[in-house]
C-alpha cells in the first residue's frame, strides 16, 4: 500500500493551508496597523475619498452618481471610479453598525475590507505557482508573496482604495493564463480582466498584454483555441455586464480614463474577434498569424477612428496642470528618480523574478509548460520595465515576480538544504531565502542610517501625493511631522465643530477634510477636476487678491493651511512672494480674520470677510 509523506498531505490540503497563511497574515497586519485603525488614520487621499464616497452612498446618493459633492460645490467633483470596491466596505458598515455604533463600524470596515482582496491575491498567486512549478510548491509561493513589501502595502488595514483589488485580479489573470484546463483558464482570465477594467484602467497595459499573449499562444498552437474563445467571451460579456452594473453617469460619456463606451467598444470587438479567430481550423501558423495581425489592426483602427481623443494618456491633462501639479506626484515619477532607499526594496524583487523567469524558460523549453511560463515572464518583464516610467508600477511588478522568484527558489533552496556541510544547509539556505525573496533589501535599508537631507533629497508626502525638497534634516523632520499631525482626528476635531463651510485648503488635504468633517473643499487630487485643482494652486501661488477672488468664486468662507505639509513646500519654494509664502510668514491680508484654534494645533485657520 503506497504511503504519503507530510509534504504530499500538505499539498493535498493546499487550500486549507493557504487560508491559514491568509489568516496569519491578516492578524499580523491588523496588529501592525492597530493604532491607525483606532484613530481612523486613512493615510492616502484615495482612501479618504473612497470612505467619503461610501458615506455619501449610504446617506442616499444614487448608485450611478459617483460625483463627490463635498468637493467643488455645488456641481461636485467627477470621480472616475466604480461602485464595486464600495460594496464590501458598505456591507461591513451595515453589518456591524447595529452592534457597535456608527464610528466603530467604520473602523471595522476600513480594517477588514482590504483583507478580502488580499485573500484573492494570495490564493491566485499560490495557485499559479502550484500550476507552474509543482503541487508541493504552494507554500513557497505563499512565503514569497508575503515578502513583497511594497505590494503588501496595498492590502494593509485602512488601505481601502481600489489598487488592492486590481492587483488581486492581475494575479487571478495570471492564474487563469497558466491553467492547463484551457477553457476554464480562458474564462477565469477574461473575467478577471473584465472586472479589473470595471474597477479602473490602471492595470490596462498588463491586461492588454495578457490578452495579446492568449492570441500568440493560439498562433503557436491551434489547440489553444478553446482558451482563446473562452477568454473572448468572458472579456466581452464581462465588460458589458460591468459597464451595465457599475458605470457611473459620468462614465457613460465617451471618457478615456474609465470603462466607458470607448473601452467597452474595444473589449466587445476584441472579444468577438477572439471567438471568430478560435473558429479557424487551419493548421498553418502563418495563416493564424496573419489572421491575428489582421484582427489587431481592426481593433486598433476602429479605436483610432472612433475615439481619436483617447489615443494619448487617459488623464488628458492640460500642460499647465501637468507642470504645476502632476510632475510633483511621487508615484508617477520614475523609480530611478527616487533615493536608493526607495528604489532598492521596490525594484529588487522584480529583478530577481526576471532571473527566475529566465531559468524556468530554459528548464521548460520544449515542454507543455513553456507557453505558460512565457506568458507570465512577458508580464513580469513588462512590469519591471514600466517601473522606469512610473514608480506606481512597483506593486504590480512585485506581485508578477512571485512565480519567477518561487521558481528560482525551488531550484536553489533544495540544493543548499541537502548540502553535505551543515553551515551551508542552515546558513546558506537562510541567506539564499533572504536574498531571493528580496527581504535583504529591507534589512539593508534599516541597517544603514538615513542620509542627511540635501537640496535635492526628496521629501515624500505621507498624507497625499505631492513632494518637494528640503535643505536640511530639520526641514525633513518638520515636513514629516506636519504630514503626520494635520490629518489626525484630534487635530481636525476643533475644525469639525465649526458650522459647515466651504474651505480653501491644500489639494492633498481636501479629501481628508471632507471625509472626517462636515465641511466642503474646493479640490482633491483627481485629474478630472482640473479647473478646481488649478484654482487652488493659483490661489496659493498667486497674489492675495487672486486668492480672494478664487475663494469668492467657489463660495469658500474659510481658509485652512497646515504649515509644513508636503504640498505647502511646493508653494513655498516655487512661488516666492505668493499668497502661501506670505501666509507662512504671518503676512495676512486684511480681508482674512483669524479663527481661534486650541494651543498646539498644527493648523492655521482664517475666515474671509466681505
Structure description:
The chain crosses the membrane at residues 14-32, 108-129, 136-156, 187-216, 228-249, 261-280, 287-307, 343-362, 369-389, 395-413, 422-445. Keywords: Membrane, Transmembrane, Transmembrane helix. It comes from Sphingomonas prati. The chain contains 28 helices and 7 strands. Residues 452-464 and 466-473 have low confidence and may be disordered. It has a 5-stranded mixed sheet, sandwiched between helices. A two-stranded antiparallel ribbon has the order 1-2. A hairpin with a 6-residue loop joins strand 1 and strand 2. Helix 11 packs antiparallel against helix 12. With 610 residues, the protein is mainly α. The chain folds into 2 domains: 116-410, no CATH class; 468-608, no CATH class. 47% of the residues are buried. It has helices at 6-12, 14-32, 34-38, 45-58, 86-100, 102-112, 115-132, 138-145, 149-152, 163-177, 182-199, 204-220, 225-246, 261-278, 285-306, 319-324, 340-363, 370-386, 394-417, 422-436, 439-447, 473-485, 489-496, 510-516, 530-541, 544-554, 566-574, 579-584, and strands spanning 458-460, 467-469, 502-504, 520-521, 558-561, 592-594, 604-608. The radius of gyration is 26 Å and the shape is globular.
